[in-house]
Amino acid sequence: MNFDIQDLSGTFTAFDIVVSLALSFVLSAIIGWVYRYTHKNVSYSQSYVQTLVMIGMVVSLVMLVVGSNIARAFALVGALSVVRFRNAVKETRDVGFIFLVMAIGMTTGTRFYLLAICATVAICLVMVLMNKFSWFKLDVQRQVVKVQVPPEGAYAALVEDILIEHCTEHELVSTDSVRSGALTELYFTAQLKKGVKPSELVSALTEVNSGQRVTVLTGYDQTDI
Number of structural domains, the chain? Predict the structure, then answer.
């Protein structure tokens, strides 16, 4: 019995299909485990990791279907262009992992098996090393300070004085009107002075803003919001 699947673009066997899909599954699963191991923030999603594995296998299948047929490739691009994604990617590294599994799917689908294996090992090893040794980490922890004050300008000036006293640097990000103009909400980014605790900053700001709400979010650039 002949298991060859043949068309004008070339030939691939049932064995090629099994190897391509199985290898793309194994390598994508390895990438998924590396993503899980190196993930530090609170936004970990099991669904996202499972999607990584599925993307690798689907891209491998697509590459098998396309082969060297340019017309079929354009037809698939047109068919896939109707897909719309609504979920925002919270981390830029998530996009990198998506591109990685797509590349692995392309290499397994085009039967560059050794390249797929070597690329997976090398890139995953780099990700693990960067995570283990915290490469490119910036040891600066910044805060987001949100203060509600009466609309009079004197209160904003008092808040600025408190920030100058407790922070090495600060910057006003935005000013919003809340409660139908009864209050003004000020957003700052700031870096506390050495030895100053966020609770101390909250207490100092509470004393000058007529008892309105004060929020200090610490480490906003390392934590998902």
Answer: 2
Structure tokens belonging to residue 45: 């999603």
Instruction: Say yes or no: 156 and 55 in one domain.
Output: no
Rounded to whole angstroms, the Cα distance separating 170 from 142 reads 9
Instruction: Enumerate residues 6+ apart whose C-beta is below 8 A from 18.
Output: none
Other Cβ atoms closer than 10 A to 93: 16
100 and 204 both lie in a single domain: no
With respect to residue 62, please indicate whether it lies within any of the assigned structural domains. yes
Question: Among candidates 64, 58, 56, which has minimal Cα distance to 26?
Answer: 56
State pTM to two decimals. 0.67
Q: Which two tokens stand for residue 138?
A: 């910036």
Pick from 101, 132, 163: which residue ends a domain? 132
pLDDT digits (tens, 9 = 90+) for 159-204: 888 898 888 888 888 888 887 778 888 889 888 888 888 888 888 8
Question: How far from each other are the two terminal CA atoms of the chain, in whole angstroms?
Answer: 58
